[in-house]
Design a protein that fits this description.
Two copies of one chain form a homodimer.
Chain A: E1 5-9, E2 15-17, H1 20-26, E3 30-34, E4 41-45, H2 46-58, H3 64-75, E5 78-80, E6 87-89, H4 92-97, E7 103-109, E8 112-116, H5 118-138
Antiparallel strand pairs in A: 1-7, 2-6, 3-4, 3-5, 4-8, 7-8
Chain A binds a DNA duplex through loops.
Chain lengths: ~140, ~140
DNA sequence: CCCCTTTTCCCCACTTTTCCCCACAATCCT
DNA sequence: AGGATTGTGGGGAAAAGTGGGGAAAAGGGG
């Protein structure tokens, strides 16, 4: 389970360190892809990625919108691994898609990790909180 | 069950002691997150947090608002544990969110604990009292 | 086909931050 | 009043963030 919010610099070579707390779950490898619907980079542990891929493969009848999702997911996917310092390299295409400059916000989102630009994360946050309080109360917490 | 209201100092390193009475229930670990809707920090015993997380994980759905909830909840959540002196460290993002300076009010709220700024707690209290009297009367108490 | 240029990747080193432990002072309970 | 527990502060060791240099690989031109 990934939780927390961290800010890191992206160096001129496009490298980003991930929080040490996240590294254990990602050590076996990870897949980067476009965030579904949002302007962010999604980071899946290799195991979670496979589960996701299997779920999509099961559906023999594929509605058009799912087919689009398929293309967006797999077409934009890159494998990644840590260097000796716990950093990964962001592919230029994904970095441009998420509009990440020389700083990024790393966000734990349960089964996956997300990388945001500062501006994008701020905007997302304000929208999310209002809905969150309502749903939580409906869960009885 | 957490009850009572206590005032503590936040030292320059962002550490806060929790009331000794609370420590037994939190000894196995805790999760800090934004008090959804209110400007405070919510502290859940690890067991309570997992119950909440499981309820969300059940829903394999993809709706955008649930995705956003995931982000708001898990993104603002941080694991925490006591140091040798019964203190925890407040993450900077949460501390800023709750506008907690060098003093905080620790409030027992049944299944969870809440950390407030002095001003925020005062304001919340006056509002809460009015509503409480109404609700109690409606219960015939 | 070879060599030179450019890029990528890996490793090293410095600086900063974090975490853990110790110590003093005030308070509570007996 | 005495002892134990708790609030508060600070120092030191360990880990993490950041940047840069050099070797290996890839690409292009002679």
């Amino acid at each position: 389970m990934f939780i927390g919010e961290y800010q890191y610099k992206v160096d001129e070579k496009g490298r980003v360190p991930l929080p040490p707390r996240f590294r254990r779950e990602l050590k076996e490898g990870m897949v980067l892809s476009k965030g579904m619907g949002e302007k962010c980079i999604a980071v899946y542990p290799i195991r979670e990625w496979k589960k996701l891929a299997d779920k999509l493969a099961e559906k023999t009848v594929i509605p058009a919108n799912l087919r689009k999702l398929n293309r967006a997911l797999f077409g934009s996917a890159f494998g990644a691994a840590f260097d000796g310092q716990g950093r990964i390299k962001l592919p230029d295409t994904l970095r441009a898609y998420a509009e990440i400059g020389d700083t990024t916000i790393v966000v734990g989102a349960n089964a996956r990790v997300e990388l945001w630009s500062e501006e994008g994360w701020k905007a997302e946050q304000t929208v999310a909180e209002e809905q969150a309080s309502q749903i939580i109360e409906s869960l009885g917490a």
